[in-house]
Design brief:
Layout: H1 2-28, E1 33-48, E2 54-68, H2 90-118, E3 120-123, H3 135-139, E4 146-152, E5 158-159, H4 163-176, E6 180-185, E7 194-198, H5 210-216, E8 227-230, H6 235-239, E9 246-250, E10 253-254, H7 258-266, E11 278-284, E12 287-293, E13 296-300, E14 303-307, E15 310-312, E16 318-321, H8 325-352, H9 363-376, H10 378-396, H11 404-417, H12 423-452
Antiparallel strand pairs: 1-2, 3-16, 4-5, 4-6, 6-7, 8-15, 9-10, 9-11, 11-12, 13-14
Length: about 450
């Protein structure tokens, strides 16, 4: 129920803001708006304002539209033809069409700014021990270091206030194909003890996924090697392990943190899926125990890995990241621009075949993340809403027929050649655009089903 309600609320907000942008731009240009609809299909509720605009809530919540006075969509009284949308100068038509996606981008910036100003608890930027042969390990990361700043390409170093911000820097650098420089210290107050450079440009990553961060060696923030919930019929339960057990050593080698313990568990299974027993030294309360644990083999990304059926790692140390009003506004605008740029980069890579089409997500994935973010609290839900709002704004600006960007493409043609596109070609492009959109939506829905079914 939370997932459904969160999804419907998110869709309602995003569609309303998008259509409100078209509506306000049309009103500002003097174009009469006949109907403002949130949702499609049979009207469930409607009312009219003093301008004569009918506001409608449709039965199908996945969509909306603004219907303006337009000679192409119905008869227009002779005394109002100069007010019709199709009779407006090119710059006004372009402004009205672009106002919808622009409203989504503005909403995203406001939401990001509000979250930054309100403040959110995030894991401290403390690095866990990287697995051997990862980029972080080869760069000299030992584990336990505090990340002070990060910089990619020729950019100036920027302060890193949380592990979430560190992952954001890594994501941007990976998608841009740039190396990332980190300044490390033994504590949050510095000074910087040394700098390391992660050669992320060598990844040649086709997409950003969990395996990418595993190859880099920075997966999660530092946390103690403590066991959490244990699956009743798992290997940990069979060995006698209990929640709260602190793992001190495995096969005589000290365990520095939870990530080291995860790596040792995974490595307990060979390439053929054969698991070997491990000798765990644990601390339980005031006593120390030695237990024999035999991880069980499971397939992961085409390879066999060990699993014990327990949550590995205690809660990481947290910090509250808060910005002042002006700083938060700047961060909101910057984050919106960065997300929009990353979205365009990923779309471009999918078009050229450099990234998998599996990155496309549809309504089921959006609904799933809407519910998960809502369960984490209002700030997480607002951040999710901002992300989807950016995506909606960027996608609508793509030069595809039936989208706002397609109409802007027609207007660009009109500005260059001095006359509008012929109705014949307009009809052909619209049909092609609808067909392409159906294919993309079908692919996105297929990806959703694959993800949800594991």
């Amino acid at each position: 129920m939370l997932t459904v309600l969160s999804f419907l609320l998110a869709i309602a907000i995003l569609i309303t803001v998008h259509e409100w942008g078209h509506y306000r731009a049309a009103v500002a240009c003097g174009v009469p708006v006949l109907r403002f609809s949130i949702g499609l299909g049979r009207p469930l509720w409607s009312w009219r304002n003093r301008r004569g605009t009918e506001f409608v809530i449709g039965a199908l919540p996945l969509g909306g539209y603004v219907r303006m006075l337009d000679e192409r969509e119905g008869s227009v009284p002779p005394d109002q033809r100069h007010l019709a949308f199709n009779a407006q100068p090119l710059r006004r038509r372009a402004f009205i069409v672009a106002a919808g996606p622009a409203a989504n981008l503005v909403l995203a910036a406001v939401l990001y700014a509000f979250v930054a100003w309100w403040g959110t608890p995030q894991p401290q930027p403390v690095l866990a021990t990287p697995a051997a042969d990862t980029l972080a390990a080869r760069a000299g990361v030992r584990g336990g270091e505090w990340v002070l700043t990060a910089a990619s390409g020729n950019a100036q170093p920027r302060p890193v206030r949380s592990f979430d911000e560190l992952r954001w820097h890594i994501s941007r650098a990976v998608l841009a194909g740039q190396d990332l420089r980190l300044e490390l210290a033994d504590g949050p107050q510095g000074p910087a003890q040394r700098a390391v450079e992660l050669p992320l440009s060598a990844l040649d990553a086709r997409e950003l996924e969990a395996a990418t961060f595993e190859r880099i060696g920075i997966v999660a923030p530092w946390s103690a090697p403590v066991l959490g919930d244990i699956v009743p019929d798992g290997a940990a339960a069979a060995a006698g392990l209990q929640p709260g057990d602190h793992v001190l050593a495995v096969d005589g080698e000290a365990i520095a943190d939870a990530q080291t313990l995860r790596a040792r568990i995974r490595a307990a299974v060979d390439a053929e899926g054969r698991a070997r027993a491990q000798r765990w030294l644990i601390e339980r309360g005031a006593e120390r125990l030695e237990l024999i644990v035999t991880p069980r083999a499971q397939r992961h990304d085409g390879a066999w890995v060990g699993r014990v059926g327990a949550v590995i790692g205690g809660a990481p140390a947290m910090t509250v990241v808060v910005s002042g009003p002006l700083q938060a506004l700047g961060e909101g605008v910057a984050r919106t621009a960065e997300v929009a740029g990353m979205t365009l980069t990923m779309l471009g890579r999918m078009v050229t075949g450099e990234a998998s089409l599996r990155n496309l997500s549809g309504p089921l994935t959006i609904a799933d993340y809407a519910g998960k973010s809502a369960s984490l609290g209002p700030m997480a839900f607002l951040t999710f809403l901002a992300l989807v709002s950016v995506s909606l704004g960027v996608l609508n600006l793509l030069p595809l027929p039936v989208l706002d960007g397609g109409h802007l493409m027609y207007y660009l043609w009109e500005a260059v050649v001095g006359r509008p596109l012929s109705e014949v070609w307009m009809d052909r492009l619209q049909r092609g655009g609808v067909a392409l959109l159906v294919v993309l939506m079908s692919l996105a829905l297929f990806n959703d089903l694959v993800r949800l079914m594991g």
